[in-house]
Structure formats: C-alpha cells, structure tokens
C-alpha cells in the first residue's frame, strides 16, 4: 500500500506529481504530500490529510519546480494526520523521503541510533530519514553511502525516494519487497510505484530489484548494488493506453469496470486463440500441470474467491485435484503438500505481499508456479516461473469486478488447454461459451435499473445482509458478500445455504435481507427451500435464479449459460447491487474507507 512518485527533468513538476498520485490513489488515501525543489534550489513541502484533491488545493501554484517526490498514504504506523503524512524530513530539513512499506525494526533502530532525536511523527518512515541524516552527520558518510547503510540497517519492506537538498539535482531510490519502477525519457527521469502513474510522461521503464540503489538525474540513471557494483538493465515498454485511465462518461470507475466485462470476455478469447481459432497456452505450463498431482491456488480477497471457482473448473475439466488457500494463512500455516504440487497465484495487481510471501517459499522449495495477473511486469509475475495475463485493462476502483471474471475466464481457458494436452475430452468449448457469456453479461447490465431498485428495497437501511447458495453458487455468494461489505459497509455474509440452520439462522429477524443465488440444477431446489425457511422467519428475501430453474417469486432471472461458468453471470447482479447500495448510501464507491487496492504489506 501507499504510492510513491518522483520526477526530475525539464517540466514543471507539480502537476506531474499530483496527477501521478491521483493514479496511485488506489494504493491508499489517508493522506498525501509532495516535496518540490524550485529553480533557486529552494525546497517546498506540502502535506494534507485525506485525498489528493485536498493536497492539490494546498499546493502553491506560483512555484516553478523541476524536481520532486510525492506520496499517497495507507496508514500502518500512526493515525492519518498531517504530521504523519509523507514526505518526512530529517530534523535539519536537509533530507526528505517518501516510503511505501513497513519498517519492522524501527523501534530498535530508534533506540540504537536516534535516542536524542526529536521525532515529529509517529511513523516508522521518519526513522529512515533521521537515520540517513544521522549517518551523514555523525559518521560523515556521503549521501549515497548513508542511504545504503540505512538500507542495510533497516528490516522490513520499503520502496523509497529520497531528496538531499544540498544536491537537489539528484533523486535517490531503493526497494525491498515493495514495488518500484524507474521511468526514462528525453531530459527527465521518474520514479513510480507503478507504470500507470507515469505513463502520461513515458512508456519506458526499468525495474529496480531488491537490494539495489538508484541515483537519478534528469539525464541519467545509475543502478548499483549495495557493494557499489554498477548494474546495467534495459528498459521495457509498458503497453498502457493513458486513455484507459480515465472514467470517460461514467460517474465511477466501479460501474465503468462492471460495464467492461463483456469486452474483457471477448478480448480474452482473442488473446488466447491461435491462428486456427483454437485456445492455446504455452505448452511448458500445460506439461507442468500434467506432471503435477495437485494444483494449489493461492490468493487474497476477491482473487481468493475467484480461486474457488477455479478449483471447480480445474477439477471438473482436467480431473486434477485442486485446493484453494488464503495466502496470509498459507505462509505461516503451510498445509502438508503432495509430492508434485503446481502453484497458481491469482492476483489482479501482482503485488499483494501475502501472496508474494508464499511465492518466495514456493520458489525456495523449487516448485513450479504460475501467476495470473492483470499487470505485466508485476512482482508476482516476474518471480513466478510462468505468467498468464488477464487482459482486463487497468482496474482502478478499489473493489475488484472485471479482474474477478477475467480470472475465472483465464482459469477456464487454462483448464481446457490442460485437458486437451492430456488427451481428455473437455466437457465444454470455452471459447464458444465465453462468447455466449459476453452477450449474457450485456443483458444483465442492461437491466441495471432492476438492481438499483432491488438495492433500494432490500439494502438501503439494513445494517446486515446474507447471500446464500450451494456448490458453485456458494463460491459466488462469498464474493457477493465481500463486494457488498467493501463498498456499502453493510455487514454481509456469504453463506453455504445448507449451513444456515446450524447457527446463522439465529440472526434472521424481520426484514433481514437474504439474497439467494440459484444456478445449479441439483442443489438449487435445496437453496430455494432454505430461502423459504428464512422467509418464514421474516427475512426480506431476494432470489436470483437462472433460466430453467426460475419461479414466479424470483426477483431476477439470469440468462442460461454453461453450468461450469455460471459464476461469470451470477456475480454481475451482485456487483451492481453492491454499487447501487453504496451509491444510495452516499459512499465514495471507488475509494471505500480503510481500504487500498494493492496491499503491499503483510
Ligand atoms: C485488496 C483489494 C481487493 C483484492 C485483494 C487482493 O484487498 O482491496 O480488491 O481482491 O487486495 O488483491 P490482488 O491484487 O492480489 O488480486
């Protein structure tokens, strides 16, 4: 979490930093700040609690500055406040830093080196900048050596950008675990947590690796390791269309991204089809899955929920057993593994720290791994043996929608390719079915007013709500409840409908909203029975069923799609319900409280 930017070059830096931070706001929005150096080498610090928009109002427009660093914060150490907002400065004001990550030994470092220093904030970050200043002042190190020594002393995760006001023509950067890119251009260079934030300036980026330090001037970038050895690394082109980063005519990114799902389904078919029109995936991946005796899917949040559908697809289409694990649990409570595991990491951002922690262990053990991600070049993509891209386009709303459906679609494509590679008949033609699904999603989205109305009748005032389903519908209700919680703040549970009467039904009282998803022919009648049990106890029931399984009483009937792919369609009403509930409650749909899209701390 937290986003950082830096720019040194030939243009006025204020707007570059602020619009970069606007793009990075998905990483946290508790506070924001910039530090800029003007033509007379005078430094100016601006910080504000809350959103970038508030910071923008504070920045003095009249300053012309050509170098600077900026930060948007998701608070870990210290409450959201102006004092705790980055950039942080050393006591003398000479050094200024922005940081994404968590310093685990900041208290020990403070005790060992900085007992006499007065701190202005309660952040772990201020320790870094005070430590650099201490090494410069007490040990007479020059800035780069003090920076390196601080890095060696600190434990934890960090992406850092540093300014020394005695040498303002230079920016310094370093990272460990947290992501950081360097961008290059004619007469300028940039630092950024992701490529999107600086793509308006350049499409050429260089990855910085853990344990490396970069020194940037407007005309050069020098990367070296901690021993001082220079590292040469080519830049790569980030294929991001800056136009994709806007909301267009939509009021919120979330509704734009919900609307984009039919196009994503069609794009995925194109991207994974070969010249003969058959779905194709790198045979090395297929061979490794064939070799393996069990697939382990590891993920967090919405990606974890997509993983459950993926398990079903892999098992039913390929016959290989699959398990799904929360990354944060797997890392510290590792299950007993089979002899030949194959790991799939699902991560929209490709940066989630918990998932990465597991990948590090998997790599250490030498097991094969595949990352499914929306972000080429992301950490999980670089560090896994293989990558498959989601091709969903930038997902900016904090609540994930199109990445969920894209993950399921890519897992279906993978499963079908594995089945064919193994010489097994696939029970479905995935490319054909995804075409049907794209049309079906359009039909449901066209009915958005129905879901707006249902949100008002069922969820406008309630404090809690239940989604229920069985089998594949259970997997979807887990995601439906998460979406509702994230954006509307309604306390929601996605519950296996058969489990209701084993305790949870005690919570049902007059008007408690209970939304049932019924797309499965075998278990559907049982869920309908469970819906009636809660109706008898006063619940405000809403049944969303699939054509062929519908009854008069149902609130909405979904177009029929293939049994194995029903989550791709049944999740759409639940995304719309979450969106409209949040909208009617006056919430900031795209930036729900306390959340961040990319969770880069464990
Ligand atoms: C955060 C986001 C969720 C996301 C989860 C996993 O919690 O708010 O929307 O599902 O991280 O992110 P990933 O990028 O790994 O899919």
UniProtKB/TrEMBL annotation:
Residues at the catalytic site: 2, 597
Molecular functions (GO terms): carbohydrate derivative binding; glutamine-fructose-6-phosphate transaminase (isomerizing) activity
Catalyzed reactions: D-fructose 6-phosphate + L-glutamine = D-glucosamine 6-phosphate + L-glutamate
Origin: domain of life: Bacteria
Main location: cytoplasm
GO CC terms, sorted: cytosol
Keyword annotations: Aminotransferase, Cytoplasm, Glutamine amidotransferase, Repeat, Transferase
Chain ranges of the SIS domain: 285-424, 455-592
SUPFAM superfamilies, per the entry: N-terminal nucleophile aminohydrolases (Ntn hydrolases) (SSF56235), SIS domain (SSF53697)
Subcellular location: Cytoplasm
Keyword Cell division applies: no
Boundaries of every Glutamine amidotransferase type-2 domain copy: 2-219
One Gene Ontology term from the biological process aspect of the record: protein N-linked glycosylation
InterPro entries referenced in this protein's UniProt entry, alphabetically: GATase_2_dom, GFAT, GFAT_N, GlmS/AgaS_SIS, GlmS/FrlB_SIS, Ntn_hydrolases_N, SIS_dom, SIS_dom_sf
Enzyme's top EC category: transferase
Self-association state and partner proteins as the record states: Homodimer.
HAMAP family (alphabetical): GlmS
Name of the molecule in the record: Glutamine--fructose-6-phosphate aminotransferase [isomerizing]
Lineage of origin: Bacteria, Bacillati, Bacillota, Bacilli, Lactobacillales
Gene: glmS
